[in-house]
Amino acid sequence: MKKIIKLKESDLINIIKRVLNEQPDSKFDTPYNKELMRKYNKPLPQKYKCLTPELSHSVEYAISEGVELFWVKYALGILGRESDFGKVMGKFGIKAIPEYTMNKMSELIPGFKEALQWGAKKFFNKSNWVPSMGVAQMTPDIAKKYNVNLEQLMSVSGSLVAASKYLKKLYNETNKYYDSNQPSKIIYNKKLIDNPSSSGNAALDAAIMSYNLGSSKFKKQYCKTNNVEYMAPCNSPNGQYQPFPKDNPKLMLKVDKNQVVKNYVPTIKTKTEDNKYISSTGYLKEVVGYSNKFGCVK
Description:
Blueprint: H1 9-21, H2 31-40, H3 53-64, H4 69-83, H5 93-108, H6 112-124, H7 140-144, H8 150-153, H9 156-174, E1 185-188, E2 191-194, H10 202-213, E3 222-225, E4 231-233, E5 240-241, E6 253-260, E7 269-271, E8 277-279, H11 280-292
Antiparallel strand pairs: 1-2, 3-4, 3-6, 5-6, 7-8
Helix pairs in contact: 1-5, 3-4, 3-9, 4-9, 4-11, 5-6, 9-10, 10-11
């Protein structure tokens, strides 16, 4: 049964005004920071000197929410990659408010989410689409699992909590397939090498890439094939694998299931909204690059 949503222009304007008014006035607008302000009655002390005051306070807030520093450090790297730490608000400013508005209207208006998903499927062939939003560029359904709402996702503090907890969850999935004391591996110039962008922890590398791509590509073992330029999932049906079924269907690899390549991570390219491409290893490089700058977060 199709649902019809009827809105007057005045109704839509009122909803958008309500949505915008519910956004936090400040990225420091968290219960933890408010309590500190009451305690000190002056600007908050900055504990982590290698960070900006805003990021330092956000780290303390994440800790107060029970997140370990290890996850916070790499989640900071993710926030840097996803939105330049909320300058999105710079880097993603054009779409930050529309994404928030669509998600908020999905909460407020019965049937709006279904209509949004119908349009995404019909016009863009996207199934079950929900806009990613905020500093962490995360979908609200994931954030809610960590008690972070839409308004909090628009702040650095709230996004850091959600990203940290989600990264830990992804790591708990990938560490069943990757080592934590070895770097990940990639193919470069037809040779298998240690990934120069690695954090030094292959399971963490896979978790970081999973944040961008989902974890399905990293919850499996990879094996050698008859082509030195490619590895393939060891469980490929009939021992055969097509790396590019649409673009190059003639390329069929034979998979040697007895030659498992430990800690290999696939380089996967995805198209961005500005018609450019980012690879899984390129994403990892940016995140680890940011995180390595935060030596005081330990």
